[in-house]
Amino acid sequence: MFTDPSEAPNGILNTRRFGPAPQNPDPEEEIEVYTDGSCHGNGAADAKCGSGIWYGQDDDRNTSTKVGPPLPLTNNTGELIAVLESIQQNKSAKRLKIASDSQYTIEALTKHSQTWLSKGLIGVKNPEIVSAILGEILATSTEVRLRKVKGHSGDTGNDGADMLANAGANKTVPDKIDLTMSGVIRAMGAKTNSLTQAQAYRLMMRHKAVGERTRTTRMMTRTRAAIEASTGVDLPPETVWKSLRIRKKGTISQKFSVFAWKSLHEGHKIGVFWKHFKPERLICQPCNAPIEDLNHILTECRTSGQETIWKLAQRAWGATGLPWPEISLERILGVGNIVVKNDQGKVLEGRTRLLRIIVSESAYLAWLDRCEWRIGREQNPLRLHTKKEITAQWKSIIGRRFRIDWALTNKAAFGKRALRHAEVKRTWKGLTMANNDKMLRDDIFAEGVLVGNGGRACQRRPPGRNR
Ligand SMILES: [Zn+2]
């Protein structure tokens, strides 16, 4: 972490990217937060300590955390936890700018961190939290920047964070704070300083792998089981990760990779994520579902448009003459490894590629529509996406993927990595016009064909009907 890129020390704090990262970083993925800590009765055993992260006025990402023992209950603890959690919350952002009024926090993380690491954090205050922050920075692809703001000077963001920190301190039950990365950094000890970041990352992953059974392992196990059901092969986790990271032949989009990567880490702020501090967000209210988890969003929910989307997908797949696989969350996340075979058990390359494209794009659209409704449309039940909107979106997305495929055959532009014409034809066979490989079939992809009564809004359906 550094306040100015030119100040970045060698090696460890450089922000080399890991995992799938946006190819064309969207400027929106730059996130700015204000952090603050609060402590009434600084240092006392019964002190009330809290952290606040402020994104904007009434932003539902705004976070109040109550810090409890065994962490020291001090102002500085509150300040550091706010920084830690803001990094944990924004692992998919390209850049995270943190505004803090804490001189201590900024100096700890910019000026002193390198020396502290080289001494194994001995004699450092708050070593668990400082090392957890450094560990998170190492493990994320996000570029983290810290800037100092003046406290209590009428700055809206700083005041907002201050209020959230106070609210956190006043909560009754301490929140669970994830300090996993601290153990990682400390296990690496004094060697940390001389490691390249890539080495540090691999070490950290190994440490995690032998550590507790994480949420990631749980989701990975389920995903591997789905892949095994489809392919008959039990793939090691590395292969599954690799299928997301190495996007062979442009089959899976960068955005889907990032989404699936985060899903495998159970890193989305949905469902149980909210259990402790915003229980009303644990549920999916429109569907009356007890937990709004990813499985619900992608395969059951009324607000994500998933029902319409999967109908469109299944209908398009029908043109291949092959059976449509039942869609599950595990199939979606493991899509990079799922294969289509013929009756003789031979893998059909073109069909496999088409299924991966359709499933990944469809799932990602459901996710986007759900987020857009929750955040962009303020969860207004009168503003659910209509079937007509969803249908138009889906057709436009698949149509774009089709055009991208043909664009990828350009040898002059892509050289050895270009797709072969035959590959593209095999992929889309049955979905293109009989006399033109470069046009999708009107009856499947033309606007308005699939939806008779396209203007009808989903909200008129009785609650829970789609579940
Ligand atoms: Zn729902």
UniProtKB/TrEMBL annotation:
This is ribonuclease H. Belongs to the RNase H family. GO terms for molecular function: metal ion binding; nucleic acid binding; RNA-DNA hybrid ribonuclease activity. Keywords: Endonuclease, Hydrolase, Metal-binding, Nuclease. It is an enzyme of class 3 (hydrolase). Gene3D superfamilies: Ribonuclease H-like superfamily/Ribonuclease H. Residues 1-28 are annotated as: Disordered. Its EC number is 3.1.26.4. Coiled coil: none annotated. GO terms for biological process: DNA replication, removal of RNA primer. Residues 27-170 form the RNase H type-1 domain. It comes from Ephemerocybe angulata.
